[in-house]
Design brief:
Largest sheet: 7 strands, antiparallel
Order of helices and strands: HHEEEHEEHEEH
Helix content: 10-25%
Oligomer: single chain
Number of helices: 5
Radius of gyration: 18 Å
Strand content: 15-25%
Number of strands: 7
Structural class: alpha+beta
Distance between the termini: 19 Å
């Protein structure tokens, strides 16, 4: 997991010369950048799916930890999924491959975990056929993913044939819901996907308000 400590230790407002009091409330534009920075810095999240109608738990949600990496063009995310995984099974059973992925800021030394930023990315999973991915793109995905998860020895090396063999997948985002922390100083609500995708593209990402 790649975490830039500067992003976790910034003060209430990271604008040079800004007065620390009163604290300016996080805007939607700032929230878009903060959410994107969070997803890039914290590469472990929670994948949520729904049990299919064939399951004894039909209709119930299911959520479990997953790895991700920002190796596809913004705003999509990259995954190395295994069919043996229950969440993967649920997603593939849904004809639209719907899923929600949540990333939360670590809360070590925070006054409250509820004061830390978290974002839910709502969308669809696209399974990438290994044989149809150009060789250079395969190598790029593998190299990028391993920068975030050097322990991920299970990344695809061929077209998936066994339940314990992984395949590349991409989460394409349709909606974003962000909670920056407590509502008196942080943005809480939906963020337009195009605003999120464009955030920080012309500058180095950095959080602009304490989360």
């Amino acid at each position: 997991m790649i975490v830039n400590p500067l992003h976790l230790l910034l003060g209430s407002v990271a604008l040079a010369g800004a007065s620390p009091s009163p604290i300016a409330r996080e805007t939607m534009e700032e929230a878009a950048l903060n959410a994107k920075t969070l997803v890039h810095d914290v590469s472990i999240g929670t994948m949520s799916s729904v049990f299919s109608s064939e399951s004894p738990n039909a209709g119930h949600p299911f959520a479990i930890m997953e790895y991700h990496a920002p190796c596809h063009p913004s705003s999509s995310l990259t995954f190395s999924l295994m069919p043996i995984s229950l969440s993967t099974h649920n997603i593939l059973q849904d004809k639209h491959h719907r899923a929600t992925y949540t990333v939360s800021m670590p809360y070590d030394n925070a006054r409250s975990a509820m004061s830390r930023a978290r974002v839910s990315l709502i969308g669809n999973i696209t399974v990438l056929d290994y044989d149809e991915i150009p060789w250079k793109e395969r190598e790029r995905l593998r190299s990028c993913y391993h920068r975030y998860h050097p322990d991920a020895w299970w990344t695809p090396m061929r077209r998936q044939r066994q339940p314990h063999e992984s395949f590349w997948a991409r989460l394409d985002i349709q909606d974003i819901y962000y909670v920056g922390g407590f509502g008196d100083t942080h943005y809480i609500g939906h963020i337009p996907v195009d605003m999120y995708a464009a955030a920080g593209e012309n500058s180095s990402p950095s959080m602009v308000i304490q989360v």
